[in-house]
User: Fold this.
Amino acid sequence: MKKFSRIEHTNESIKLDAKDNKLLELLVADGRMSVSQLASKVALKRDSVSYRIQKLQDKNIIRGYAPFIDFKALGFIVFHLYLLVSEKPDSTSKLLEYLTKHPNAIRVLEFNDRWDYEVVLAVRSLDNFRDIRNELHEKFGEIIMEEDHIIEVERFSTSYLPLAFAAGFTKDVKPYDADELDLSILKSMRYDARKTLIQVSKEVSADTDTIRKRIKKLEQNNVIHRFGAVVNISRLNYHLYVFNANMRFISERDDMRFRDLVKNSRNIIEIFKTTGDFDVTSYLAAENSHSLNTAIKNFKQEFAHTVTNYQALLVFQEHSFNPAPDAVLQQE
Assistant:
């Protein structure tokens, strides 16, 4: 099973020129944009654009292209499970393999911090999460020293690059009853969103007009937020931090402030309200400790009236990112 990794432990960073930056911005926003369209927007010839895209892929800056899905629209709840484990190399490697291959796992992050791992899970119900947690403890309870979890309530962004490249936030969504064809299309495109409609049609046994209409319908119903390039931000000299905050309350005005932060902060990748030990979680991309400090200070100033506590976790590595886990693609 193919999985993307967007954060890695590397000392190698790559400086992009203005044309490559623009291409990356366009492909993050619309990973299905044709080479001809890209060439027109960056004022280059088609061959030059194709060459530059290939170089971005060869240098592991672009890891692939995927649909960015709103799991809530498909009726799923998103849990963030934090784990602190004992140092037993054989057992921890088996735990990591188990987590990255789990059919409900969206992403698995490793920290050098308060927690060792964060696994983000799409589940159908609280009972579903409880079953997953119980199985996890049955298999690896001897090395799990501590755990915690939060539940996503509302998400304000689904980009995976700082504002210098892309930004946006999700709209209010209503549950969408995806049928077998919808899920087959998502499965076909989850690791290669630049597939042609002809390629997808052959895989799902439907004509191209039907595929085109279904994709449009999935977008209109906010199941697919966008098709975009999956970018390795480590190669662009960014570090990823998970920022969790406690707040006394979150008003409607605070919701607007979250949206403004997404639009105006060059460090924020996504923000979501949560329930659990923390009220807000944000993924921050920072080039250095000064950038991180500035981003956190701006957040604290903006929400000084309600923030009571916070923590920032440095991500060492993303072991897997699965844009459409197997469990999501199965009908009940």
Observations:
- The domain at 72-162+233-321 is CATH 3.30.70.3460 (Alpha-Beta Plaits).
- Residues 163-169 have pLDDT under 50 and may be disordered.
- The beta strands are 62-69, 77-85, 105-111, 117-123, 144-155, 224-231, 239-247, 268-276, 280-286, 307-321.
- The longest strand covers residues 307-321.
